[in-house]
Amino acid sequence: MMLGSGLQGKASVDLEKLKEVARLVELLENDFSAKKLSSAEQVQTLLTLRQHGTDPTNADPIYSDKGINLLARYGLDGETVDIRRAALRCIANALLLNPNMRQVFVNTGYAGRVAEKLKTDSSDDEMIMSRILFLTTYGTDIEFSTLITKHSLADNVCYQVTRHAKQFPKGGQKDLPQMDELALTDTLKLVFNVAKLYPSLADSFAPLIPHIFKIISRIDIPAKPLDGLIGYLVNALSTLDLEEKPGKFESSPLFPKFNQNCNVDKLINILDAAVRVYTPDELEPRVVPLLHLLITIHEFAPEGPRKYMKWLLLPEDNDRSAPIGRSDTLSSKLLNLSTSPSVHLKTTISELMFALSDKDPENLTKNIGFGFAAGFLASRGIEIPQDSQEAFATNTEAGINPITGQRFDAEPQDLGPPMSQEEKEREAEKLFVLFERARANGFITAENPVAQAVREGRFEELPDDADSDLD
């Protein structure tokens, strides 16, 4: 009986919530024309309704055509800012918690007015408007092209990004107040989704590019570099066309005249910070857009920034004091990550190294060593050219091990007892087999050095009774 009473009590409480939500919706419905509630009472009613809506269970009157339509009317036509804001927060909450309500909201026809009201100097309102529009990018038939051409969506998004960029004066603050950051984050998420889902509309957001780079160049890099605003700025850029076509920009936003390398430098500093704090699994969803962005920038970069990127991202002479990938430099960390199980991460890192090598297999092999280059080239179906031995010869003549990328003079010396002749023969046989496999796969075309030694009489077969312990 006690258990039954408890269940009956719970059902009664749920029924009470349902009745209360229905009462509040009815009260707001009647008052929209009767105007009996004061502004403060309307706000309080909407806030109470929103609180009930944080759990959709037994809040059906909110999660309905009637409920969403009513909230949209208050959100766009309410008499005060507080009324409109409270109603729109109810809508944003409903769209987040019940995906079915997104199409219901689109059906109200109010999305265009939300896009128009995105032109505001209030970050509170920017955040709500951007969040509602962002949520409608999922599972609806909303026409973003109409929002852009008839309701100034792209212009108003640009207004917001420009407004926030002005909050980063040269030599001034290096971050945003929390509400401004939340608002800009939602706006950037909206840009990313629209440009990603509707590539034909991405050009509408091109005016954002200089302002996004301005923010990136001046913002501080946080402890978790890509978890906050920087990550959303990079994501938004990764969906936009960065090519500087004639008349597109007044001056180059990617490579400004006052310092062509400033944006490249900041993005690589962000990358360097990221690879030092995230695990490979954490890196994949965060850093791949940044890597793609660097690949794109390198593609459009003039000679100076290209050389600068190669200097910062490819192994230097100092890296070659050990096999490439063993030092603490950014290039070594990237190459190590290129062998991780994270498919998108390792592929994108290899693509970056290939781009930095001017998409030349021989340059790639020379820059990062055959060990790192071979897998990427094989996965892309790229054969080493017939004259690939030149890359090996060039590295070897320069005193660099073509497989590991390490300088020969820095390789550890074997201080142990000398190998027996039998051990030498076994090692030579291993090398012969490995070399022949590489030749069969098309990675190299040079003659097998073991076969060459035999042909030239530099490899002597011992008689069967030779002492295997002799050198």
UniProtKB/TrEMBL annotation:
A cellular component term, taken from the record's GO annotations: cytoplasm
Superkingdom of this protein's organism? Eukaryota
Disordered: where is this region? 402-426
Q: Which InterPro entries match?
A: ARM-like, ARM-type_fold, Gua_nucleotide_exch_fac_Ric8
Transmembrane domains' residue ranges: none
Keywords, comma-separated and alphabetical: Chaperone, Guanine-nucleotide releasing factor
Task: Extract the Pfam families matched here.
Answer: Ric8 (PF10165)
GO biological process terms on file? G protein-coupled receptor signaling pathway
Which Gene Ontology terms cover its molecular function? Answer: G-protein alpha-subunit binding; guanyl-nucleotide exchange factor activity
Q: Name the protein family.
A: Belongs to the synembryn family.
Name recorded for this polypeptide: Uncharacterized protein
Which species is the source of this protein?
A: Talaromyces rugulosus (Penicillium rugulosum)
Lineage of source species: Eukaryota, Fungi, Dikarya, Ascomycota, Pezizomycotina
